[in-house]
Amino acid sequence: xxxxxxxxxxxxxxxxxxxxxxxxxxxxxxxxxxxxxxxxxxxxxxxxxxxxxxxxxxxxxxxxxxxxxxxxxxxxxxxxxxxxxxxxxxxxxxxxxxxxxxxxxxxxxxxxxxxxxxxxxxxxxxxxxxxxxxxxxxxxxxxxxx
Length: 146
Fold this sequence. Notes:
Blueprint lengths: L6 H6 L5 E6 L1 E6 L5 E5 L3 E10 L5 H4 L7 E7 L14 E4 L2 E12 H4 L1 E11 L22
Antiparallel strand pairs: 1-4, 1-6, 2-3, 4-5, 5-8, 6-7, 7-8
């Protein structure tokens, strides 16, 4: 493939695209108990990418937990941020579930205008009306699936 050839654009011209609601992490605030609560921008529907499951044989290579469910989101022209030191990363709603971006392991954004995002299932979809993509308060461990 020629650099700048944008393989994702070619693939999306023949494969179905999926709509994902994307929530950019904007910072955090502290609740009454002193715990940090992530704050997100209002969700934006992105319908220019494709979602696929992450094959089990790639879990070890990517350092993923075998007990969790992940999706791989191929998305053009979007600078998605993953979990890293002192930053919890962005979140997604897809197919009735909420996902935390944990890895942007394949980043062709600068060269070809797309990246591959790995996201971990953290529970049921959280609608925007609950505070611009607030963490899933229905779970007992701070909004993250066990």
